[in-house]
Amino acid sequence: MAPAADRDGYWGPTTSTLDWCEENYSVTWYIAEFWNTVSNLIMIIPPMFGAIQSVRDGLEKRYIASYLALTVVGMGSWCFHMTLKYEMQLLDELPMIYSCCIFVYCMFECFKIKNSVNYHLLFTLVLFSLIVTTVYLKVKEPIFHQVMYGMLVFTLVLRSIYIVTWVYPWLRGLGYTSLGIFLLGFLFWNIDNIFCDSLRNFRKKVPPIIGITTQFHAWWHILTGLGSYLHILFSLYTRTLYLRYRPKVKVSPLLRSCVCVGDMVLGV
């Protein structure tokens, strides 16, 4: 986490329980952690296009919800890192739990009839979200949130490995790419936390353009945002295969990955 000495800025004193390694208000007086803020664009813009395209193609609502949930996480994270206020921190961290619950639901419902609803799983995930929210609001302990989030991610990893190992082995490329990118982001997140003092000292000695590349929490946003987006694509691909749509993954001229059935785009 960040050392105590930081500049004051537009949003006033920090009230969040976390303050990351990026120097506060070092780029602009209006944004506490500039690079940690703008790096969230990858979690906001691409999923918005995905949600819009999913609506156009009449996909199941769970996948529209997945894209929108990732967008909400990006927006919440933007507000948190821009202000370093506790209320904005909750807008970042709680949607991480909720979005992962949606991802879990999608992954465990890949092999069901179209438009089916698993009320037992839905109830379990909603109950889990409510318990995590209630406890976290009470204890305000970031480690608790991180452990709960890690449990959900681990569940997704196990389910993904099961699918690419026993059901659709030809999806290993997409599945493992998503996982690898996400884990690389997690590595950068740990480096940023553990070596914060060293990173700050290094940034003081090098040109700003080089220092930017060591904003590893911003890299965490970029890589986990991309990894999460690819995970939704992987989940959608698995679903369309089960429904015998014969999907294909391609990259559009705007460099947006999509799942396609024939000439119809199913996910951007």
Automatic annotation (TrEMBL):
It is found in: Membrane. Its cofactor is Zn(2+). GO terms for molecular function: calcium ion binding; N-acylsphingosine amidohydrolase activity; zinc ion binding. Its main location: membrane. Pathway: Lipid metabolism; sphingolipid metabolism; Sphingolipid metabolism. It is a multi-pass membrane protein. Hydrolyzes the sphingolipid ceramide into sphingosine and free fatty acid. This is Alkaline ceramidase. It comes from Rhinopithecus bieti.
